[in-house]
Amino acid sequence: MRVGMLTGGGDCPGLNAVIRAAVRKGIQHYGDEFIGFMEGWRGVLDNNTMPLDLKTTSGILQLGGTILRTSRTNVRKIEGGLEKCLETFKANKLDALIAIGGDDTQSVSNALVEKGAHCVGVPKTIDNDLSGTDVCFGFDTAVSIATEAVDRLHSTAEAHNRVIVCEVMGRDAGWIAITTGIAGGADAILVPEKPIDIEEVCKLIKYRHDHGKKFSIVVVAEGAKFPDGGQATHGEKLDAFGHARLSGIGQTVAEEIEKRTGYETRSVNLGHTQRGGTPSAYDRMLATRYGSAAIDLVHAGKFGRLVVLRGTEIQDIAIKDAIAKTRTVGDDLLNLAKGLQPMV
Ligand code: F6P
Questions:
Q1: CA 85/CA 118 separation, integer angstroms
Q2: Residue range 29-71, pLDDT digits in tens
Q3: Which class for 339: exposed (0-12), middle (13-18), buried (19 or more C-beta within 10 A)?
Q4: Which residue, 170, 221, 160, 162, is CA-closest to 194?
Q5: Residue among 32, 127, 172, 187 flagged as catalytic
Q6: Which atom of ligand 1 lies closest to the CA of 9?
Q7: Model-level pTM?
Q8: What's the rounded Cα separation, in Å, for the pair 216 and 165?
Q9: How much is the pLDDT for 230?
């Protein structure tokens, strides 16, 4: 078969591992030919491609970023965009397309599937917020990077008797924050799923001070908000999928803590560090399983489906179900975090 591949949305560690696995299995076991579209859906609109073969995908397993580059191009917002994509598929004599991306990228795949295109999806996002899969690749690496940062913040916070607030990514879901916070032993964890209770945060920090710990670490998700406010954003501009650029809640939380407790408080925003660099072994493994399963789906003719991880098993679900709803953090993890804190 002739199979196209693209990576869309924010990059994340493990994209190259998916590409490599699908290409290696496709060429060596099915006799497929591949082409890669550059910069996500933009490459399909512009018919901008690169060859994907055993040579071009060699030595990329451990590389962060994506050899196909990426963009947040919303084909559905461009007049005649979907039709243009279908023309490109035809011009390249494609039998199928594997789109590696999160809910935005998959929303375009879904629209094309509804027009008869043969798309299959692979769930990618450090945010881990796609419904129907237990884990998206990239999440483990992002959490490892953030946890290492929190470990490092502990020693400097302790040396200076400071409170340090660490802001992590995750958009409207608190998966990175709650996992990093628990794994890194943060004293308070703030997620978008629960309005910020600044009084409670201050009580937790004061309790520590009163019991001999003169420093504290707070992890806050970029999408967390105060009960009476919206999310902290950088600028007014929205991206092509209508998302604001979330940033800055960490600094606001730090200022509130310092004002209310009198303890010196600093904030750190980890930002894109969480998306860069080499994928963890877990993400390389998951990405490889996803890439291999995606080319199997193509050959099984299961179009409109997304490969997912359920428990320890790779399965597939309808793309439209995966994008229907953002998967947010549940009470189990919120209660786990609470159970580790003193009752203030
Ligand atoms: O969706 C992944 C993500 O890293 C979010 O956590 C974050 O809000 C957003 O992308 C940042 O996007 P950009 O790279 O366009 O600044």
A1: 12
A2: 999 999 999 999 999 999 999 999 999 999 999 999 999 999 9
A3: exposed
A4: 221
A5: 127
A6: 1
A7: 0.97
A8: 8
A9: 86
